[in-house]
């Protein structure tokens, strides 16, 4: 994104009013009690087509949680509970799970949602190995309709946290998806959720309208539009002008509008960790001592206090404190530039440039400023990095599709499942953030799936200790998620970062 250190210019406000036209640009404080359409300022959109079988992006989940249902759900505090499933149970070694499915749910086309649709959805994800959801479900083997109204999930390895996976899988009707295929279904999706798909214009907006026949609590608003607004200034100005109702804002924007009558700020600790990925096989980074020196040189406290205005927490591990697997007793990282210089001298490093890739807009607020701060930290000990900013889609392609990092890169992982399995599988289990491909880290990832409770946290601790020793990836911070909200809107942010709006209401009561 562009640097967000400038003031909120009147011209930008006018531009936001001119370009964000889903709701009228009304003066602050206008009567919104009768407002029936809610507009969300989305940071980005799915890289590919918005198909829940193949897409697992946070941007896509915001769409899918409006239009589809999942077997289980998290509440706003991250506590799991039933949704399409009324209960579930597992066998002794966590390799088989049986879910009982509600029998009163219909898809938007009137077709009953049956266990066969659930089984089809999961089996189709497995049959789409290039899709995001498949990478989260490597332990999944098959789903089959069981006795009564049940679905039986068979796993190829133990996984004690399987129910968390089901919170992110949107159930599709087998007959419709089979007839339309991925692209066709993305263009005309049929779900069973609280909203019905209306239209999608790529790069502009994704719109839904209330489902009057929803099996659960009906949505309070009649329509919702997720409008893509990549620039943080434009998002904040959109809420101030009245053209947006909810928008994620950057940490350094919050203080300027706190107490404002035109904007209400809702904040909470997020479920993500912003981290520095490293290709541990590339150039100077192939030497563990150079990687250790990088980890020791970064001023995490400075980034949090100065750039993020204190609206973040220094990361001491690669899962956030509200995510399964977090170890509350894990030690805090220490900055030691003297030791970093000693390691570099021992490695014979003499300033060979290391590429530093990051997105200049998209999922990490103030990404350019953070990259520049890290560059300055590393320069203090004699490490040279070359900044290579790009757009979010290009960076995502580099990370998730090509796995082609040239050096270090700025990334974030906020698991919608509120569990550490997806992040650690990505980082240490042979997936896209795992350049070292160490058998010992992959074995520990597998071990976390065989245990539960404190025993599982203990294995996470062993994994993170090994990561810190070898300096494979570097946790930076867990950001607070701060949202600018229309003061007349009653809406609560979620621990998983999803913007769900079925319970949102306008009014002043």
UniProtKB/TrEMBL annotation:
Keywords: Signal, Transport
Gene Ontology biological process terms, A to Z: peptide transport
Highest taxon of the lineage: Bacteria
Keyword Signal attributed: yes
Keyword Coiled coil: no
Signal sequence interval, chain numbering: 1-26
Entry's Gene Ontology cellular component terms: ATP-binding cassette (ABC) transporter complex; periplasmic space
A molecular function (GO) term: peptide transmembrane transporter activity
InterPro entries cross-referenced by the UniProt entry: Peptide/Ni-bd (IPR030678), SBP_5 (IPR039424), SBP_5_dom (IPR000914)
Domain called Solute-binding protein family: residue spans: 81-433
Family: Belongs to the bacterial solute-binding protein 5 family.
Protein name, entry field: Peptide/nickel transport system substrate-binding protein
The organism of origin for this protein: Nocardia neocaledoniensis
């Amino acid at each position: 994104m562009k640097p967000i250190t400038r003031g909120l210019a009147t011209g930008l406000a006018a531009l936001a009013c001119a370009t964000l036209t889903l709701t009228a640009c009304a003066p602050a404080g206008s009567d919104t009690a009768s407002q029936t359409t809610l507009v969300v300022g989305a940071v980005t959109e799915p890289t590919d087509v918005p198909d829940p079988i193949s897409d697992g992006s946070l941007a896509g989940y915001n769409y899918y949680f409006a239009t589809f249902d999942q077997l289980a759900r998290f509440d706003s505090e991250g506590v799991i509970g039933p949704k399409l499933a009324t209960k579930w149970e597992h066998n002794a070694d966590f390799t088989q799970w049986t879910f009982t499915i509600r029998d009163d749910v219909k898809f938007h086309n009137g077709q009953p949602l049956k266990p066969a649709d659930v089984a089809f959805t999961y089996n189709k994800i497995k049959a789409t190995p290039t899709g995001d959801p498949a990478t989260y479900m490597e332990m999944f083997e098959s789903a089959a309709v069981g006795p009564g109204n049940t679905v039986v999930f068979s796993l190829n390895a133990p996984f004690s946290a399987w129910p968390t996976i089901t919170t992110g899988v949107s159930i599709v009707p087998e007959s419709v998806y089979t007839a339309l295929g991925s692209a066709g279904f993305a263009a005309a999706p049929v779900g069973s959720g609280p909203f019905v798909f209306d239209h999608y214009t790529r790069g502009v907006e994704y719109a839904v309208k209330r489902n009057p026949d929803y099996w659960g609590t009906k949505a309070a608003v009649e329509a919702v539009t997720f409008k893509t607004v990549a620039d943080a200034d434009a998002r904040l100005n959109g809420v101030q002008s009245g053209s947006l109702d909810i928008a994620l804002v950057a940490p350094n924007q919050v203080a300027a509008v706190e107490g404002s009558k035109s904007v209400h700020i809702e904040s909470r600790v997020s479920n993500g960790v912003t981290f520095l990925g490293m290709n541990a096989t590339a150039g100077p980074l192939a030497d563990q001592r150079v990687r250790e020196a990088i980890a020791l040189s970064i001023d995490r406290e400075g980034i949090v206090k100065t750039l993020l205005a204190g609206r973040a927490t220094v990361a001491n591990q690669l899962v956030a404190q509200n995510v399964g697997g977090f170890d509350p007793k894990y030690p805090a990282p220490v900055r030691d530039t003297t030791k970093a210089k000693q390691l570099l001298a021992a490695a014979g490093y003499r300033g060979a440039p290391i590429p530093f890739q990051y997105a200049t807009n998209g999922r990490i607020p103030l990404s350019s400023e953070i990259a520049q701060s890290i560059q300055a930290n590393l320069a203090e000990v004699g490490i040279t990095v070359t900044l290579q900013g790009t757009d979010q889609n290009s960076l995502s392609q580099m990370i998730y599709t090509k796995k082609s990092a040239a050096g270090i890169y700025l990334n974030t992982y906020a698991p919608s499942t509120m569990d550490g399995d997806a992040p650690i599988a990505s980082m240490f289990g042979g997936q896209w953030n795992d350049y070292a491909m160490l058998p010992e880290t992959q074995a520990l990832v597998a071990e976390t799936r065989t245990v539960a409770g404190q025993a599982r946290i203990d294995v996470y601790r062993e994994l993170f200790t090994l990561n810190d020793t070898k300096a494979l990836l570097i946790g930076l911070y867990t950001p607070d998620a701060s949202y600018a909200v229309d003061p007349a809107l009653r809406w609560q942010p979620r621990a998983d970062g999803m913007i769900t709006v079925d319970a949102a209401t306008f009014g002043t009561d």
